[in-house]
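Consider this:
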Amino acid sequence: MPGSCGSMCAGFAAVFLTLGASLASGAADTASGTLQIGEERVALKYAFAVMEPDGVGANAKEKLTVFLSDLPVPDELRKASDEWVYWADKQARAGALHGVTVAIDPATAIWKGGRLLTGKGLSFYSESVSSPELSDLQFAPAGPIGDQIAGKVSMKASMASVQDEDGRWRVEAEFRSTVIRRAAVSGVLSGEGALNSPQYKAVLAFLEACRKKDVDAIRNSMDPKSRDTLAEMLAGNKVETLNMFAQMAAETAALKLSKVTIRGDSAEVDFVGSTPSESKESLRVVLAGGEWKLAQ
């Protein structure tokens, strides 16, 4: 999950990242280049570009994420949601997928960081420099960034991996891709409107089920894809999974509903702490079978 999330947002993101949708074949935009991690060298052939919120909440600034990989993102996952991220993480852990995401500021075309895929899944990388000229992360756009993005990424020097045993890594690739964007905002609810909304009530049902460690109620509060994820988590360690969900639900109960942002058949339910310094959190719900359900 992009941005600075609180414990609930980060917690559910972390557990769902270990699982995800199954692989399917599909068309993809193109890349040409290589990714070197330690002694392993991978040919990058595919690109997938998506606008993502750079933070939590509907008003978060957007960043453009370009995923360069040796396998295409399945057609069913090529949309502005985190489903493709969960898929990528799972495939990387299985050794079936290699790649790197490149986070680009669409206003300045500056490459700010991203996520590297290794056998341990996705890991974030970034650098801190006083000016773009000093950055080792170089992006040369081939034209303006709009409905399409094209250009070349390269690095002045290799970068250390999060895990020392993975060695240093480096990427150099040219790519071209359609830019996928989130659905437009169709409504924003606050105050009593947010408290009485079906989207917020769907989140409450999920959190209450988690607090009670009620497996059937948790499952019923989720959309079908999330139910598949839950089943795998419970099969791995039921007690640990339920304890973790209960703890995160208790932490969220201490926060205050901020607003509900509706985007057609999906919505973001935002929470805030009692002071500006406290973490913000956002949970996503979707319409499934005519009812709002928690989604990955």
Notes: The mean pLDDT is 86. The chain has two domains: 24-180, 187-294. DSSP finds six helices and 15 strands in the chain.
